[in-house]
Design brief:
single chain; about 1950 residues; alpha+beta; 62 helices
């Protein structure tokens, strides 16, 4: 069996083809993956993909292309780096990183960058192929790499990736170079990216396309030149293009004849008065309009001129086409000035040559030197472009420039008529002739672009004897042909006659060089015109060359020629690097010919132009040293001064490029072997004279030339030594030492008197560093170093800070450390002390920081990382000793210095800071253990060490700041952090040794811990955010530095001992932040510190409240920033629980850990929920959970209030206005009506508590209004109104009262939808903690039905599974790793039954109490118990009734709350039957009443309901109940059900009675077309009666009322809504305000909100009514999850199943009918239909009386005994008595002292802070019930019955709105007992009934008491000033109802400090 063998060389490869890896241990590969190979076996490799090193496997060898690689750390942890070009490696890794990010750009819809990056990636891939092929030349390879790196940098910048430090296109390893060098590279790349360096050289590209004109037909010549209008002279040669007759280039194939580059324009030439001028000359007939004749002679004639300003092209970077307008001059004689006239806009001198004449030209301004342009615009130069030179030299003259151009401008001429009557047509022809008189071929050029010719013809001006041409020609004659050459100008008259002859009439000439060798001087020359007629006369030039040629140099006696009028003016300009026009220069160069002139020539040298000197530099220097060698005694000083002048001339920027020429001369041509003696002697003479000299200028000039003087001295000595074999060595050294002694002496002098010697010292110091290199040629390194040390050491130390010498000193030091002498380690140790001394002095005074930083950078960049030399170690030690402390202080001061307002200064400061930081890091990196020991030993006192540690820790904190380096400098940040952690590890020992025990110093330790925490939390160290490749590289190079620092923190903490108490609780927050970093090892190290803190805190104070408080405070802010996760929560819990197992305080510790863990659960859930987009139930529920946790468990008021407002904002965003109001009430409840000042908090300003509470009240009221919860708004209006009244603020009081009144109107006028309610169960472990395995009831949105709600919940929880049954889930569901949702509709059980049962209360009011302040909900499920009787299923039909009790009533601070308790009861078949019939009877009553009061728009609902009941009864509906429950067997078997059977019988008879009355009403309103149906119903009713065996109704049925919900004519509006027993017993009902429910809600504990609505599925029968009666409870079957809103055809309908075919309204019809009904027409209902007559007052019923009915509809039926009550009307009452009634006006409260105390409710608002449970009162009256006792509470006028406090205005309004007046009929049977009691009460109280009835309006009106606010007490004294609201205390004395279960304990109210 073959073994796997580790590979030696096959280590790295690229996948050629994808491999699926389906075999055992196979590794799937994708094409292009890179793999590292570990082992090999028979054609297979084993290894891993580099991007996922954890997954190892095998793969075939032939799928891999092997590449050479370098192996690092060979062995188990080896890494492989491919040995390819570093640019290729970078390209490959970068493209891989870009690939993933590029796809994300598409996902994020960043299309522009996506496409640009795609193009760049393709471009890089193409370039990569070129590099890999390897066929590129060296230069081309360099260009390609430069292009690649530029593209890589661009892409990295666009994608926000890191800046890559490079040197020569290759990435650098930061560990291989100095930190200072790394910083310099990064800074260079950063600056390069930011600011391009300005260029000083510019070039103009011109490309002539065509001339467009309508009157062409002749060939054209076009001349371009650059013209300076300020100086009125051309700046360049002319560019010459020939055009054909069509206006196109004559030679289109030769681009160099159409394109040119005007080169060497300086920055000063780019100004607005510099223009490109175009002159156009036509070649043809004399007159443009002449007819064609036999004359074929062609003339050059003016055509047009065009001008464009250079500044117009500065903005045009691209090569744009310009159409230049062409102008013609009006007068031909002004032609030469046309362009000036156009520029100056002298319109009278020129006009457009044609409306459509234009010159099409491409113009482009290019920048940079010409070589750079050749690289960038390669196509331009390869295609061909002519070069048009500048007239004269460019701003910078290069030594290699060779030029010899003579420019001649033919300016003008003056000619005589020559015997003709008209002026001549003069043409000038120019020739260049050599010494022999032969014409120089091709040396006369009209301009660049066209090759030179043999002659040049000027244009001809018609009939002009004084022509002005201003035409420039160039004569590029070689230097060797200049001597003896001349230029001849021939003048011809051009005849316009038929022959067109050109007749010669004269000539002029001018020699190009004088006999003494001087070239023709620049300037204007007036030439003599010599007469001649025959050309033959000019062939022999010797004949005329003897003649005078210029009028300026004629002999004085030659007046004949001088007086002639004919002349030619020309201007010459020589641009030559070889010829001179200067006589003094010639005299100097020819000094041997005239020895007597040497002195004068040397003196005049300074006056010669510098360009002349540099042209003959070598010759001049040879002359000077020749003179020195031959006459040193006589001319030494003058030669020295001349040499100084030439040397300083080369310092000029114009000639600085000639320094290499002088260097070359010194090295190769200089031969003055003896010169050094004279030079040293003269130089020393000058230095010695410095101190005494009055004027220092000349000496300063000498010292400026020090560098080159030393170069000549050294080279001269070398030549001498070479020639003599080293003679006079000692003499030379002695001279040099003496020279340096003189120098040191003059440097040591300080300013005395008026001699500014400092300036001279500064001049020398500037030049001195340049001497070092020269001295090294003759002296050893140590000798030169000694020279330098002594020279620099001689400088005066005590000088003023503003002295210019200080800056120069530093400059000298800079040059010194940059020089070769400092680089050498041998000499460096000599120079270092003096350098450090000067540097330290500057740093301490914070002067010239930029230069100091540069010096330090240079010094530290020379230190090698692993230099083992002892000198290097000493060097580091020396630098540390001198500079470290001052460097730290400098960084502190520079970094904390306030930045100036100017934006320009910031980069400089940033640079300085960065450089100092890089120096510090470099120094610390070089420090080893020994250096740290020496450093720490130098501190003599603890205070010094303490200050040092504080400084360095503070500086480290500065280095860690994000703004320290640009954000893409990740490499620099990692290096910085690596150095910091290394240093901290060294310094922590010093901390332990010196600052523990008695010497403990809190400040140092605190600084240390703060630094460590900030270090770990840096963004640049969070490896989890890095890409995989970057993370891998970082871990390989540095490891995880966070873990290293965490271990160090833990170690240091353990060393603290009892001093730990100093950091508790201060360090809890920072350490908690560290533990939240998602690094498991770090968490494991740091979390145990909390146990230690708890332990020490427990020892100190016996508890750890401080630890707990700090943990809780910090957790909220840290987790909200995105820190922490579920893993952390579990780890925190497990580690600490394990740690405290053996502690004595284990129990309290577990409690703390549990609290913190639960808080983390909620905070993590909250954070996860807040990441979602829209506001949903999950966000709100999570916020509620957190808010309640802060209040109930942590009692953190500030956090509690913050989350109240967060929840409020969420509700507003979701438009849950009612919930928003309840939420804000939580904060409102914490405030008092007091004047206590409150600080600024959240969005609240600083204000008093009263003002803030007022603002909250107004906001809450507004939101209650928006949520249509006006009843609650009314109570807050009243509370606010009371406050305004107590402060006599009647203006606001009026507004409040009007607002209150408007809310009453809205209650009556606006329609409110009743929401539906849903029970939701969240099962499974995947739900958040606040939902997990809990059930909630949710209040639905408007119009939301079960399906919509279920879909919404599934959208909120997309991974949840909907359970399809309503049964309670088992443990498997609870523990499942999934999400299960169980949703079904539930029915609200209102607490306020009394309002709902009361007669006369409008539906608008009842609808509010049906669905508000609901604690309990019901859900019914039918089932069969025992054997099911197929004939009659009602016998075994039971109902399972589930009642859910919430922790808080709905609505509240959330749309959903948790179920606190569930109760399960079973309803027997008999009880179920009773409920069904009761509900049906109630429904019938409601519909009959609505029909009577005309609340229905049509009678259909009543018709359908009657039909459903009667038809079902006829078909055996009620008979089924008789068969089931009235048979003998049932009665015998169920003797306990006797009363219930009796009750069922009564209800059946009652139903028949109601049906009979309903048919009577129906007959009155039924339309004609439905009469047959009515007749059918009447007939069926008689059948029903007979089937029930009813002939006449029993007496109790006749006596009992058929009660209708909206009241009888006699029903008092405020009569007590109680069910009366036949004996007249009345039940006393206590009352409660609506806000007593919210008051409890506001103190809820954990609860959940949802937007849900109720899905009604009525078990008790199908509702034929348009609106479901609230107490017809739904009982969904097991399939109820998917039921719709219409009632399901259930087994417990009002009749047996045979009756289910009754017609029903569909859902749609129901909704449409509901929507079209007005609020009054909407059907309303009540549970118990037996109200009191208004004349019957309630009396207390004896306790324990069995006849007292239960008002709770959910108590099982056996507990209820309902006996018929008397009625105020009967079936025989006339229909006219039933008319619409207005809504009841809720009563004003009775006041203190009223006899009716038992019926008056107390204020529900809690005034005490005691945590007593609040019992929920059984009755909620109208919201108008007052909350406070009145000011006149003892008024006897106001005492009386409960409701006697109603104002007369209210009573009148009610009476008037109550409809037509009716009197009770004889059928009303009032109960005598109750009537009697009522009369007693009325007599005693002397007050009218609570509301005026219709009956009372027919009688004389009784006295009406005043309303409480207007009542006057009997006392004669003035009323007292009302107390402030917070002084009024109200006691809640409301008795607790026995059938009420306890409510959750409210939170003790605490007055907020916020």
């Amino acid at each position: 069996m073959n073994m796997w063998i580790p590979t030696e060389h096959e280590k790295y490869g690229v996948v050629l083809a994808s491999f699926r890896g389906t075999l055992q241990h196979g590794l799937p590969l994708e094409i292009g993956d890179t793999v590292q190979i570990l082992e090999k076996c028979e054609g297979w490799y084993r290894g891993f993909i580099l991007k996922n090193p954890n997954a190892k496997g095998i793969f075939p060898c032939n799928y891999i292309h092997l590449k050479n690689a370098q192996i690092k750390n060979k062995g188990q942890f080896e890494t492989v780096v491919p040995t390819e070009d570093s640019v290729i490696t970078e390209m490959t890794s970068t493209l891989r990183d870009w690939g993933a990010m590029w796809k994300q750009l598409f996902v994020k819809n960043e299309g522009d960058l996506f496409h640009r990056l795609w193009h760049v990636m393709n471009e890089i891939l193409d370039l990569r192929r070129q590099v890999l092929v390897g066929h590129l030349t060296h230069d081309r390879m360099r260009d390609v790499k430069q292009h690649i790196t530029a593209r890589l940098d661009w892409g990295n910048e666009q994608l926000g990736l890191d800046l890559v430090p490079r040197r020569e296109f290759s990435m650098v390893d930061p560990d291989e170079i100095s930190v200072t060098e790394l910083y310099r590279l990064m800074e260079h790349r950063h600056r390069k990216k930011e600011t391009p360096t300005p260029v000083s050289t510019h070039h103009m590209f011109v490309h002539l396309k065509s001339l467009m004109s309508s009157n062409l037909g002749e060939e054209l010549e076009v001349f371009f030149f650059i013209y300076d209008s300020r100086e009125s002279k051309p700046l360049s040669e002319r560019f010459f293009v020939k055009l054909n007759k069509n206006g196109l280039p004559k030679f289109p194939e030769k681009t160099e004849r159409q394109c040119t580059l005007f080169v060497d324009l300086g920055s000063g030439d780019l100004r607005k008065d510099v223009y490109i001028v175009v002159h156009i000359i036509r070649i043809g007939r004399m007159g443009a309009g002449e007819k064609k004749n036999t004359c074929n002679v062609q003339y050059r004639r003016p055509f047009g001129c065009a001008v464009v300003s250079i500044t117009d092209l500065l903005t045009a970077d691209s090569k744009e086409d310009h159409l230049l307008k062409v102008y013609a001059c009006n007068t031909e004689s002004d032609w030469s000035q046309t362009h000036d006239n156009i520029i100056k806009k002298v319109n009278s001198r020129y006009n457009l040559s044609g409306s459509n004449t234009g010159l099409a030209v491409a113009l482009q301004l290019l920048h940079g030197d010409i070589e750079q342009l050749r690289r960038e615009y390669m196509v331009l130069f390869t295609r061909g472009v002519s070069i048009t030179k500048k007239l004269g030299f460019s701003d910078v003259i290069m030594p290699g420039d060779m030029r010899n151009d003579l420019y001649i401008t033919l300016e003008k001429g003056e000619f005589e008529k020559g015997g003709k009557s008209v002026a001549r047509n003069v043409e000038v022809t120019a020739y260049a002739l050599d010494v022999d008189g032969q014409i120089l071929k091709g040396f006369v050029a009209a301009g660049s672009g066209e090759p030179g010719g043999d002659e040049y013809h000027t244009f001809v001006l018609y009939h002009n004897n004084s022509p002005r041409w201003a035409e420039l020609i160039k004569l590029p004659i070689p230097v060797d042909m200049f001597r003896g050459s001349h230029v001849r100008f021939e003048f011809r008259h051009c005849s316009t006659k038929d022959k067109g002859e050109k007749k010669l009439f004269g000539f002029s000439f001018i020699p190009l060089m004088q006999e003494d060798g001087l070239t023709l001087p620049d300037g204007t020359h007036e030439l003599i015109v010599h007469k001649c007629e025959e050309n033959a006369n000019l062939q022999d030039c010797a004949r005329y060359l003897k003649l005078p040629f210029s009028k300026s140099n004629l002999p004085g006696n030659n007046q004949t020629v001088k007086g002639t009028k004919e002349s030619l003016w020309i201007t010459s300009f020589l641009c030559s690097t070889k010829l001179t026009q200067n006589g003094d220069m010639l005299d100097l160069l020819k000094w041997r010919a005239h020895p007597e002139r040497i002195s004068d020539s040397l003196s005049k040298l300074k006056e010669i132009d510098g360009s002349e000197i540099v042209k003959f530099l070598q010759d001049t220097l040879d002359t000077l040293f020749g003179i020195l060698d031959e006459s040193s005694q006589k001319y030494a000083l003058k030669v020295f001064d001349s040499l100084v002048h030439i040397i300083n001339l080369l310092q000029d920027s114009k000639f600085q490029h000639f320094k290499p020429v002088m260097d070359t001369y010194i090295e190769g041509h200089f031969a003055g072997a003896l010169s050094y003696r004279d030079l040293i002697k003269v130089l020393k003479w000058y230095v010695d004279r410095i101190i005494e000299a009055d004027r220092q200028e000349h000496i300063q000039q000498v010292l400026k030339a020090t560098e080159y003087i030393f170069k000549y001295i050294i080279q001269s000595r070398r030549l001498f030594a070479l020639a003599t074999g080293g003679q006079s060595e000692e003499e030379f050294r002695c001279c040099m030492h003496e020279l340096f002694m003189s120098i040191r002496f003059f440097l040591s002098q300080e300013n005395k008197g008026s001699r500014p010697i400092t300036q001279t010292q500064a001049v020398f110091l500037q030049q001195f560093p340049a001497v070092y290199g020269e001295l090294l040629k003759l002296f050893t390194v140590r000798e030169v170093a000694a020279f330098v040390r002594e020279t620099l050491g001689s400088l005066p130390t005590a000088s003023q800070a503003d002295c210019p010498l200080e800056a120069v000193k530093l400059h000298c030091i800079t040059k010194t450390v940059e020089s070769q002498i400092y680089i050498n380690p041998e000499s460096r140790c000599i120079l270092l002390p003096v350098v450090l001394r000067l540097l330290q002095a500057h740093l301490q005074e914070q002067r010239d920081l930029v230069m100091c930083a540069h010096i330090l950078t240079c010094m530290l960049s020379l230190l090698k990382k692993d230099d083992a030399e002892p000198t290097a170690s000493e060097e580091v030690d020396l630098i540390v000793e001198s500079v470290l402390a001052v460097l730290l202080r400098t960084i502190l001061e520079v970094a904390n210095r306030p930045q100036p307002a100017g934006p320009t200064l910031r980069p400089q400061v940033q640079d300085v800071t960065g450089e100092f930081v890089s120096c510090l890091l470099a120094l610390l990196r070089h420090m080893k253990d020994k250096h740290y020991q020496q450093l720490l030993q130098r501190f003599t006192s603890k205070d010094d060490l303490r200050d040092f540690l504080l400084h360095i820790f503070t500086v480290f904190r500065i280095l860690i700041r994000p703004e320290m380096f640009p954000k893409d400098w990740a490499v620099m940040r990692l290096v910085t952090n690596n150095i910091i952690i290394t240093t901290v590890l060294y310094l922590s020992d010093a901390l332990r040794k010196n600052f523990l025990g008695d010497k403990f110093d809190f400040k140092v330790w605190d600084s240390y811990f703060c630094l460590s925490v900030i270090f770990i939390n840096q963004p640049c160290l969070q490896l989890e955010t890095f890409s995989a490749s970057k993370r891998k590289k970082t871990l390989e190079k540095y490891g995880d530095m966070r873990v290293m620092m965490g271990c160090e923190i833990f170690s240091m903490w353990q060393n603290l001992g009892e001093h730990k108490l100093n950091f508790i609780p201060a360090m809890i927050g920072p350490f908690l932040e560290v533990t939240l970093v998602p690094q498991p090892d770090l968490r494991n190290v740091m979390i145990p510190i909390f146990h230690d803190m708890m332990d020490w805190e427990q020892r100190r104070s016996g508890n750890f409240k401080q630890v707990e408080a700090k943990l809780i405070d910090k957790l909220d802010s840290l987790l909200s920033e995105g820190k922490g996760d579920e893993t952390y929560r579990e780890l925190f819990n497990s580690i600490l629980l394990k740690k405290i197992e053996r502690e004595t305080w284990r129990e309290s510790g577990i409690s703390l850990i549990a609290t913190v863990t639960r808080l983390m659960e909620r905070l993590l859930d909250y954070r996860d929920c807040m990441k979602l987009g829209e506001v949903d139930g999950k966000k709100i529920g999570c916020t509620v959970s957190l808010l309640n946790f802060y209040k109930t468990e942590l009692n953190k008021e500030e956090m509690y209030i913050r989350y109240i407002h967060k929840l409020y904002d969420l509700h507003l965003k979701a438009q849950n206005y009612t919930e928003a109001s309840y939420t804000l009430l939580l904060y409102d409840e914490l405030l008092e009506w007091s004047e206590r000042p409150l600080r600024e908090f959240l969005s609240y300003p600083m204000q008093s508590e009263w003002q803030r509470k007022e603002g909250l009240h107004l906001t809450i009221i507004q939101n209650f209004d928006r949520g249509k919860c006006w009843e609650n708004g009314i109570i807050l209006c009243r509370e606010l109104a009371d406050q305004y009244e107590s402060y006599y603020d009647y203006r606001n009081l009026s507004k409040m009262r009007m607002m209150e009144a408007s809310y009453y109107d809205k209650i009556m006028d606006q329609q409110r939808l009743e929401p539906e309610f849903f029970r939701v169960g969240f099962y499974g472990k995947k739900f958040p903690f606040f939902l997990r395995n809990k059930e909630f009831v949710c209040r639905g949105h408007d119009y939301e039905r079960l399906e919509a709600f279920q879909q919404r919940m599934l959208n909120e929880f997309p991974h949840a599974i909907a359970m399809q049954h309503a049964n309670q889930p088992d443990q498997t569901i609870y523990q499942a790793e999934a999400q299960y949702l169980q949703i079904y509709a539930v029915t609200p059980i209102p607490d306020s039954q009394d309002v709902l049962q009361r007669d006369g209360v409008p539906d608008n009011i009842k609808s509010f109490y049906k669905v508000n302040h609901i604690w309990r909900f019901r859900y019914d499920r039918p089932f069969h118990k025992g054997t099911k009787d197929k004939e009659n299923e009602f016998k075994s039909l039971w109902v399972e009734r589930t009642t859910l009790t919430l922790v808080q009533s709905l609505p509240g601070i959330s749309r959903w709350f948790e179920v606190e308790r569930r109760e399960l009861v079973e309803v027997s078949p008999l009880e179920n039957a009773i409920e069904v019939i009761e509900n049906k009877n109630l429904q019938l009553r409601t519909l009959i009443t609505q029909c009577q009061t005309r609340q229905m728009q049509n009678i259909n609902p009543l018709t359908m309901c009657l039909n459903g009941v009667i038809d079902a009864a006829v078909n055996g509906g009620l008979a089924r109940y008789q068969e089931a429950f009235f048979v003998k067997d049932y009665i015998m078997n169920h003797p306990e059900d006797g009363d219930k059977i009796g009750r069922l019988r009564e209800l059946m008879f009652e139903q028949a009675h109601i049906l009979e009355f309903g048919l009577t009403v129906h007959e009155k309103f039924v339309p004609q077309d439905m009469r047959p149906l009515h007749k059918k119903l009447v007939d069926q009713f008689h059948l029903m009666k007979s089937s029930l065996g009813i002939q006449e109704f029993p007496a109790y049925v006749r006596a009992s009322p058929i009660h209708f919900t909206n009241g009888s004519p006699r029903a008092g509006r405020n009569s007590a809504p109680n069910i009366m027993s036949p004996e007249g017993g009345a039940r006393v009902v206590s009352r409660r305000s609506p806000l007593s429910y919210p008051a409890v809600n506001r103190y809820s504990s954990s609860s959940l909100s949802s937007q849900a609505s109720n899905e009604v599925s009525n078990i008790t029968g199908q509702s034929e009514s348009s609106d479901e009666v609230f107490n017809m409870q739904p009982s969904p079957s097991t399939s109820s999850l998917s039921s719709n809103h219409s009632a399901s055809p259930n087994v417990t309908s009002s009749a047996p199943s045979s009756a289910r075919g009754s017609p029903q309204l569909s859902d749609k019809q129901k909704h449409s009918r509901e929507n079209c009904l007005s609020p009054r027409e909407r059907p309303c209902s009540a549970i118990y239909p037996n109200p009191l007559d208004p004349t019957q007052r309630p009396v207390p019923h004896p306790a324990g009386d069995a006849s007292l009915p239960r008002s709770d509809p959910n108590i099982s039926t056996p507990d209820k005994v309902v006996k018929p009550a008397p009625s105020s009307w009967s079936l025989d009452m006339p229909l006219s008595d039933f008319n619409g009634k207005g809504p009841p006006v809720p009563p004003r409260p009775a006041h203190t002292g009223s006899p009716a105390k038992t019926t008056r409710s107390q204020s529900p608002v809690m005034t005490s802070r005691s945590p007593q449970k609040i019992s929920a009162p059984p009755f909620t009256p109208s919201p108008t019930e007052c909350q406070t006792t009145g000011l006149v509470s003892n008024s006897p006028v106001l005492s009386g019955s409960y409701s006697s406090g109603i104002s007369s205005l209210s009573r009148c309004s009610v009476s008037e709105a109550s409809g037509t007046e009716n009197t009770p009929t004889d059928h009303a049977l009032p109960n005598s007992a109750s009537s009697g009691s009522d009369e007693l009460i009325r007599r005693e109280n002397k007050t009218p009934p609570p509301y005026s009835s219709i009956h009372e309006r027919n009688n004389p009106r009784r006295q009406v008491p005043l309303p409480p606010s207007l009542s006057i007490p009997p006392s004669i004294d003035a009323p007292p000033i009302p107390p402030k609201p917070h002084q009024i205390r109200r006691q809640n004395t409301e008795p607790r109802r026995p059938d009420q279960f306890p409510r959750p304990r409210p939170i003790p109210r605490k007055v907020s400090q916020l």
